[in-house]
Amino acid sequence: MSKLGAWIQRQAPTRDSFERSRFLRPFAKRVFHPALWRFTRRSVPRGVALGLLVGIFLLVPGVQIAGVALLALPARANIPIGAAMTFLSMPATTPFILVASVYVGESVLRLSGGSGRFYELIQTGAPLSQWVDFVWTEAPMAFVQGVAGLAIISVVAAAIGYVLAAWFWRWWISSKWRRRSKAIAASR
């Protein structure tokens, strides 16, 4: 196993750590089904996609892993891979994800109000009455745009992650078979 593979295996949550989770205890029989913990050509890309989808959309650290574990049941996704993928939305990347979600949401929905008015209020040193007006009239639209952008980013990231994981799995297996066939040819 490569150094990267060994590191990933050490960092990935274990079945025991999930069994100790109070959030997952009610679903223990289903979540701990052995098929959800095997690394197969179908379950790994599903785990990557599910981890990116939940990890980017939820942005709440404790809830992300529990969400992946619960959604892995119907998707038959690999739980350790899905849980590991949620760590891409860590505190260092969350501000970038949020800024991108507001930008994408504003670009797609094109609703009135939003971050432009927010920055205008900051720059002009607006009084409290204008801020209250903003919070009650325009901030909900900005929130809707941000959530829509977050949903779009998470779905696109999940789709790209699925394709890349499936491609990488095929490449890895084919290179493994090539090495085996070379070793067999060399031993003859």
Mind explaining what this structure looks like?
The structure is a single chain. With 188 residues, the protein is mostly helical. The protein is 75% helix and 0% strand. It has helices spanning 3-11, 15-19, 28-31, 43-58, 61-75, 79-85, 94-109, 115-124, 128-137, 139-187. Helix 4 (43-58) runs antiparallel to helix 5, helix 5 packs antiparallel against helix 6 and helix 7 (94-109) packs across helix 10 (139-187). The model has no long low-confidence stretch (mean pLDDT 84).
Brief summary:
The protein has 188 residues and is mostly helical. It has helices spanning 3-11, 15-19, 28-31, 43-58, 61-75, 79-85, 94-109, 115-124, 128-137, 139-187.
Provide the β-strand percentage band: under 5%
Q: Which bin fits the share of residues in helices?
A: over 70%
Topology, number of strands: 0
Gross morphology is: elongated
Q: What about the largest sheet? A: none
What integer value in Å does the Rg equal? Answer: 22 Å
Distance N terminus to C terminus? Answer: 26 Å
Quote the average pLDDT.
84
